[in-house]
Design brief:
The complex is a heterodimer of chains A (about 170) and B (about 110). Chain A has about 170 residues and is mainly α. Chain A folds into 2 domains: about 100 residues, Four Helix Bundle (Hemerythrin (Met), subunit A) (Up-down Bundle), CATH 1.20.120; about 40 residues. Chain A has 6 helices and no strands. Chain A starts with a helix and ends with a helix. The chains are: A mainly alpha (about 170), B mainly alpha (about 110).
Chain lengths: ~170, ~110
């Protein structure tokens, strides 16, 4: 049964997501997104994954949210104020989202998953994650490093070409 | 103690909100927000299932779920960086970030 702390975290997470999409000013949307990601990090803490939670706060709330806010400041324009939203599109969106949520719930209820599992105390520590990354998953780490450097190069190239055209 | 269904419920709710944003919004930044919300819903689901169904395994495998989510978060950050760069470039070219008006991006 969900307790009051869980409900508060759920309200912050889902409410932040709704604010991110529906706020009038997009800067407030970025702040709402940061709050939502922070709520997800709190769920990670609750699920005995503190390393993932700290990583989430560092990367998302620390880096991505700040990056988004800087982008909003760079591209700020009067057209931001009048975002066109079509009422028919909104209806279709709400119906699709509701259909997905309901079908997920029914699929979950119809499955044979046990709802009342009480997990054993978690024995995973930072040390094991580090060992796993540096031994058997080290090829994946290398590929991830390549992907990250490629994305940084892509971002720099996109900005640089534009500057030369000016 | 919260059950697995509680976490799955939150995750499904977040995913539905993300789907809604992806369908309704035509602003590129809002669509990026929606995608980030959906990625986080998937990560939350992953960690929840890992905690409840997978953490009883012997040690090298018990840490696999959390490690996977670490990789997923790093990839999502790379994706966000590239999308934001594209948004800045599109804004410089068109003075607009409405995806229905960025026809030249489609080739």
């Amino acid at each position: 049964m969900a307790d009051i702390v869980f409900l508060a975290m759920m309200a912050v997470t889902v409410g932040g997501a709704i604010v991110a999409l529906e706020s009038r000013e997009i800067v407030y949307g970025a702040v709402g997104l940061a709050g939502s990601l922070f709520g997800v990090a709190a769920f990670f803490f609750l699920l005995d994954a503190p390393y993932v939670a700290v990583f989430q706060i560092t990367v998302y709330v620390g880096a991505v949210a700040v990056l988004i806010i800087f982008t909003v400041m760079l591209v700020r324009h009067e057209t931001w104020m009048k975002e066109v939203t079509y009422s028919l599109g909104r209806l279709v969106g709400i119906l699709t989202a509701a259909a997905i949520a309901v079908s997920l719930t029914f699929a979950w209820a119809a499955s044979s998953a046990q709802l009342d599992i009480v997990p054993l105390p978690s024995t995973v520590t930072f040390l094991q994650i580090g060992q796993l990354i540096s031994t058997s998953l080290s090829p994946a780490l290398e590929v991830l490093a390549l992907v990250l450097s490629a994305s940084v190069l892509a971002a720099i190239t996109l900005a640089k070409v534009e500057r030369e055209e000016d | 103690m919260n059950t697995l269904a509680d976490f799955t419920f939150v995750s499904g709710l977040l995913f539905a909100v993300g789907i809604y944003g992806l369908i309704v919004k035509r602003n590129a930044l809002r669509m990026l927000f929606a995608v980030e919300i959906m990625i986080n819903a998937a990560n939350l689901n992953f960690i929840a299932f890992d905690r409840f169904l997978w953490s009883n395994l012997p040690l090298p495998q018990a840490a696999l779920g959390q490690t996977f989510v670490l990789f997923s978060i790093a990839l999502a950050a790379a994706e966000a960086a590239v999308v934001l760069a594209i948004i800045v470039v599109a804004y410089r070219l068109h003075k607009n970030v409405d995806v229905s008006e960025l026809k030249t991006l489609g080739g």
